[in-house]
Amino acid sequence: MYIQNLILEVTRKCNFSCAHCLRGNAQNKNIDFAVIDALFNNNIDYIGMITFSGGEPSLYPEAINYFIDQCQSRGVEVGDFYIATNGGKSSGSLEFLTAVMRLYCFCSNNEMSQVEISKSDYHAGQQDEEAKKRLQCLRFAGERQHLDYRYLIHEGRAKVLNELNGTIDEARRIEPEKQLRRDEDENILTDELYINCKGDICLSCDLSYKRQDKNKIGNILTDRLEDLAVVTVE
User: Fold this and answer.
1) What pLDDT does 175 receive?
2) Predicted confidence (pLDDT) at residue 234 exceeds the cutoff of 70
3) Percent of the chain with pLDDT over 70
4) Maximum C-alpha span of the chain
5) Are strands 200-202 and 188-195 parallel, antiparallel or unpaired?
6) Residue 233's pLDDT is what?
7) How many domains does one find in the chain?
8) Which of 27, 60, 118, 130 is deepest in the core (most CB within 10 A)?
């Protein structure tokens, strides 16, 4: 099976508490490696793009390393990767830097691979400048464009911020797909596939923790992707 775009939530822990966070309040939970095992039990051959999300993904680099280990042991190729980090102390930790360098060396394409440091007024005073400098020594790491607060995703704590800023009408509202689509001829999952640290399967990475619970289409620990997918015909 070929997955075009896989997003894996490795933790719900976060070392920041930002008003614009679309997730909501942080939770004391890391992904169980059994979730990653269950994912690879779906006979995956290739992943076009892997994104590691959170929470703050730099707080749990062990999951990134375990993902690479499983890819190597099962012969799964990965093209590119993406990670957004908040620029806190953990963003420059040896453990995180080692994991992302290993990930870069493992991926087969790397044309779009990158680590981006979020650039937000709400991160000011929380970011660690030394950690950012260490991370930006890597050729594939840099800063995001500054966040435009007129277009915050209307999820989590950002919903309150949109009301305070008077930007509700301009806010981005997420309506996830209802069905996972699969190209039968190529056996490709064509939709964005989000698997959270509980194993729940969603079809958007831009949902709050509460909406993930309401919009999941299954759980990777009990459901097979092939069974959940609807075959599309051109």
Assistant:
1) 94
2) no
3) 99
4) 52
5) antiparallel
6) 54
7) 1
8) 60
Q: Is residue 148 part of a domain?
A: no
Q: How confident is the model at residue 21 (pLDDT cuts 50, 70, 90)?
A: very high
| Beta-ladder partners of 180 | 229
Rounded CA-CA distance 103/121 in Å is 30
pLDDT digits 0-9 by tens, 103-117: 999 999 999 999 999
Any domain includes 153 = no
- Joined together, the tokens standing for residue 211 give 């909406």
Spatial separation of the C-alpha atoms in residues 155 and 25, rounded to whole Å: 11
125 within domain boundaries:
yes
Residue at token pair 């493992």 = 106
Residues 123 and 20: their CA atoms lie apart, in Å, by 10
Residue 226 has phi, psi (to 5 degrees) of: -60, -35
Rounded mean pLDDT of 21-49? 97
Structural domain includes residue 29: yes
The residue with tokens 């993902």 is 67
SS3 sequence of 71-117: HHHHCCEEEEEEEEECCCHHHHCHHHHHHHHHHHHHCCCCCCCEEEE
Q: Is the pLDDT of residue 173 over 80?
A: yes
For 127, the domain range is 2-141+175-232
Q: Can you tell me the distance from the alpha carbon of 29 to that of 112, in angstroms, rounded to the nearest whole number?
A: 29
